[in-house]
Amino acid sequence: AAGAPPGEVVSNDMTLSYETGGDTITQEAVAEASFTVDQRLSFTFASLEEAGTVNVEPGASAQEIRLVLTNTGNEAVPFDIDVAAVADQLGLTLDPAGGGEEGTYSVFLLDEPGGTPVAYDPSGVVSTGPIPADGSRIIVIRATIPRSAGDGALTSFEVSVAPLTPNGAGPQGAVRGQGLGAVDIVYGDDGLDGSELSETSYQVLAPQLTAAKDVVVVSENRSGEFSCSGGSPDPEAEAFIPGACIEYTITLSNAPEASSPATFLQFNDTLPEGVTFDSVAANNGFDELNVEGAMISGAVATLAPGNSAVVRIRATVD
Fold first, then answer.
1. What residues contact residue 243 under an 8 Å CB cut-off, 6+ apart?
2. Number of domains in the chain
3. What are φ and ψ of residue 50, in 5° steps?
4. Is the pTM of this model over 0.70?
5. How many CA atoms lie within 13 Å of 219's alpha carbon, on the beta-carbon side?
6. What is the mean pLDDT of residues 127-142?
């Protein structure tokens, strides 16, 4: 609870009574003591995110980290908030206006959950405006993650808060020695130093994809009688001569250490001039395969970490 406000005078006096000549004599207010309530300048500051980290995907917009600043003192106080991106593997830059462009982050303040966010520029000393005793502000860091962000990429933020003077012009220091009739200002935050720091971060969860393509000779078919669509490979075939049956192998893989599956994965491949499509020799993992002339396309709904999709395409050399 906030308690009595600073400047409030607390006083009391005492009554004295005694007996004399068979009477009781009472004297009111024979002694008095008073003091002025001082200001307890205290506050708490912490991330609202579990474990302090928000997991994000490449290209995701409006990704939010939320922290809460609560004034636990006995007087309304403005604060300054500083936000610094450290260990910035995502390469995020500050956009004070909150435009939401790719690769940027912005800072907003909310009076309450679900309230209207107001853009806040953490550069320099900028007042939040007075936060009443027992009142809070929610600090929101909102970012648009680069599409190029790789799996495991991390950007951490150091967010610090410090109280300001009532006019918001500069830091509010401790004030002592004002005596019983004036107001001292005493720090009551965790470190008793008028500053609190919270660390929080974005971490990218993404697939780790690789694509491979190779081509081998199945049969040189020098007799012209080899069935390219169904014939068994000749281990000694190596010459890419006209009429030869060749086989392309296309492999899409998601690394075992990837943080997430790849979804709606697609490839498009066009056979080169001088080669004519013959058949699909094998398909292991593709949910869809389509052939239109020399264009071959395939799709996988979900490719989990550690899995691969492989297709083998046979063709003849013109």
1. 220, 221, 222, 224, 316, 317
2. 2
3. -60, 130
4. yes
5. 17
6. 96
